[in-house]
Amino acid sequence: MSDGGKYLATFGAILVIGWVLLNNGDPSPDAVEFTKKQRASIGMKLSKEFPGADIRTNMVGDRNLEVWMPRGTLDNLAFKDREQFVTSTGMMWCQDDWQSNLLFSTLDMRDLKSGKKLATYHCTFSYVRVESE
Fold first, then answer.
1. Residue 130 in 3-state DSSP?
2. Residue 22 pLDDT greater than 70, yes or no
3. What one-character DSSP code corresponds to residue 96?
4. What is the rounded radius of gyration, in angstroms, for the C-alpha atoms of the chain?
5. At what angle do helices 79-94 and 36-49 cross, to 10 degrees?
6. What average pLDDT does the segment 31-43 reach?
7. Number of helices and strands in the chain (H, E)
8. Is the CB of residue 59 less than 8 Å from the CB of residue 35?
9. Closest Cα partner for 34 from 86, 85, 89, 100?
10. Contact (CB, 8 A) for 82 and 119
11. Is 33 exposed, middle or buried (0-12, 13-18, 19+ CB in 10 A)?
12. I want to staple 90 with a disulfide (CB 3.0 to 4.6 A). Which of 15, 33, 71, 107 is the partner?
């Protein structure tokens, strides 16, 4: 490998490591403050859609959000409506933020008891996946 190739490979490795650290560590205070509006909006939407349900949110890294809920909560929606619900909630998380696309941010909905993913919305590609039982 030429010297230029070695430098390019090293630079690429540094970028990947930086991306992993930004997306999987504890959120920075700036990120917590920056996403306050989105988190509040999502909390209001979830409490309106699922009154009385035990729903918790947790930021992972600077731009990822996990929504923890009992499995039956999402199951209360008709299966055909779940994808639209996850999409609209994910869009609330990604709104007005170029960093969401740059950092491949996601919104994950997880089962409070087992930790299994119930649904995922990827900001960069506007991709939604709702898990079936």
1. strand
2. no
3. T
4. 17
5. 160
6. 81
7. 6, 5
8. yes
9. 100
10. yes
11. exposed
12. 107
Confidence of residue 66 (pLDDT cuts 50, 70, 90): very high
Tokens of 122: 């990827």
80: amino acid identity, one letter: K
- Give the residue, 21 or 130, on which the prediction is more confident: 130
Beta-bridge partner residues of 99: none
CA dist., res. 70 & res. 16, Å (int): 34
Least confident of 9-23, 62-76, 82-96, 119-133: 9-23
111 has which bridge partners? 69
Task: Order across the sheet with 127-130: list the strands.
Answer: 56-60, 64-69, 106-111, 117-122, 127-130
Q: Which residue has the tokens 């960069």?
A: 124
Amino acid, res. 11: F
**pLDDT attached to residue 132:** 78
- In DSSP notation, 28-91 reads PHHHHHHTHHHHHHHHHHHHHHSTT---EEEEETTTEEEEEE-HHHHHTS-HHHHHHHHHHHHH
- Say which amino acid occupies 103: L
